[in-house]
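Extended Data, panel c. Modelled sequence:
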Amino acid sequence: MRILYSAIDQPVPGTKGGSVHVAAVAEGLAALGHTVTALVAPGEGEPGRSLVHWVEMAPPFGSSHLRLARSAPIRQLVDEIRPDAVIERYHNFGGEAIRAAARVKAVAVLEVNAPVIDFRGSTKALLDRALLVEPMRRWREHLCRLADIIVTPDAAILPPRVPPDRVLRLEWGADTVRFHPGTPGQPPFVRIDVATVAVFAGAFRSWHGAIHLVNAIKTLRDRGRKDIGAVFIGDGPELPRVRQAAEGIDTIVFTGALPHERMPAALCGADIGVAPFDLAAHGPLSLGFYWSPLKIFEYMASGLPVVAPRVDRIPMLVEDGVEGVLYPPAATSEGVADALLALTNPTRRHALGAAARQRAVRDYSWESHCRALAAAIQARRP
């Protein structure tokens, strides 16, 4: 098939989850033999050798709110390549690509990573209602009606009137070939001189909960346990606060943001993967844990047992006591500390890590995601 994939607010190459996701899906579909043209924002450097035809097309002034301004060149591209499928990464102010699918009778696919519906107390919803006719809600629902397929990890974030037969529920994933136990190469940090090293990788936003891992290390030190340390990988608005909280603790290391190709070796330099999500810190998560977190899948693919809160969908992604240790979400830092202590036994840690790896290969590989997506598209073709 010929596939046009529009994700013009995601830079490729990039270090954030959205960039990794877009690159993985485009490359995965191309690896299956499909001809893929991907529209992305310019990243740091050039994409490596690839079967994908990458086209730089950022929204005007780098603002995702202005994506629709790219509708005309995308329509022209659709007319030129005549794709069999058009995939658009959903945005509240999107629609620049999916609206062009009908021009060439292409299968229209909307990739939904964030809620289409509003959460209680949403400022955007209040503004929409103040405009009386709720134009933003109507536009989002219009985009869903245009889609032949809506691919999402959680149908609960879609409008209630979306026909169930149009919803393809898929988790996002990990590159289980590149991420695996014993990845060769030197980790991009000097391993802390402790028996057990936990790793946090993320964008350092408040709801990612990195501060809880710092506080857990403090709690453990107060209990006399200085044999557990932590490595923090990434960058973002919460990083200064997390760094300040970690001052004076010699068993905590920060690497800053790393190119994604260095992440497999980085994860293999640790023993436990920590994803201390704080749902209360992000209003949209009041709708539920709709994320399909790449960090968890990459931890698991690397053979690391996962520490995460026992909340909403997370127990479906990581089985407590089998692939990791889940803690009560209200416990936050104390819960993270107790979970880390439960994984200091190397034999148990390795057993849970091996089970996590098996689950990632079976359920969370990008290859399996792309095969399911391609099969759904083929089934919708005229």
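The chain has twelve helices and 13 strands. This feature is highlighted in the accompanying rendering.
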